[in-house]
Amino acid sequence: MCTGKCSRCIAVTLYPLALISIICNIVLFFPDGDIKYAQDGHITEEVKYMGGLVGGGLLVLLPALYINLTGKQGCCGNRCGMFLSIAFAAVGVAGALYSLSVAAVGLQNGPLCKVVLIWGTPFKTRESLKVLVTLHLSDSSYLTDDSTWWQCTEPKNIVQFNIGLFATLVVTSSLEAILCAIQMINGLFGCLCGACVDKGG
């Protein structure tokens, strides 16, 4: 198996995934394309954790850059270079898992939105009674029951906005975690067997 070539393929694949994560996280700060919600602090709590920007973005770009740049220089052809790629890939796994966790919680809790005159998270189970004293909430998840989305009156289409972007973060961070984990295994093989650069890998 040509571990050096495999490493470079993984690195190239990680670039667009990290970019998508960063863009999704930045866009989440501007519901309805308006900066006023960020200025007023009316942003979903999980967006502030910047899972996509830091975890799925910067921490995944580190191994991607290392593997790609050192691979071009032939450094991934030696066992030391492949060992370092394991460490960088581990950082990528940690970042991707952080992004995945934040996005999953963001999906579960739902968006911060204006309900009647109160700002709150109406789909968050433990907060629902505090925020919506007079409204009846269904036991089913808001993700599968769009009949409850009307409760969020502002920002416009905030439920669809949050679901779309957080779901995208879940998918991209899952792929990033898988790819970085594969690179850890690939790097281990490279340490033990070499990266077959001599053979044109």
UniProtKB/TrEMBL annotation:
Coiled-coil blocks: none
Record membrane topology: Multi-pass membrane protein
InterPro entries, per the entry: L6_membrane
Keywords: Membrane, Transmembrane, Transmembrane helix
Record's subcellular location: Membrane
Cellular-component GO terms for this entry: membrane
Pfam families with a match to the protein in the record: L6_membrane
Record's keyword annotation contains Transmembrane helix: yes
Residue intervals passing through the bilayer: 12-30, 50-69, 81-107
Sequence similarity: Belongs to the L6 tetraspanin family.
Name of the protein described by the UniProt record: Transmembrane 4 L6 family member 1
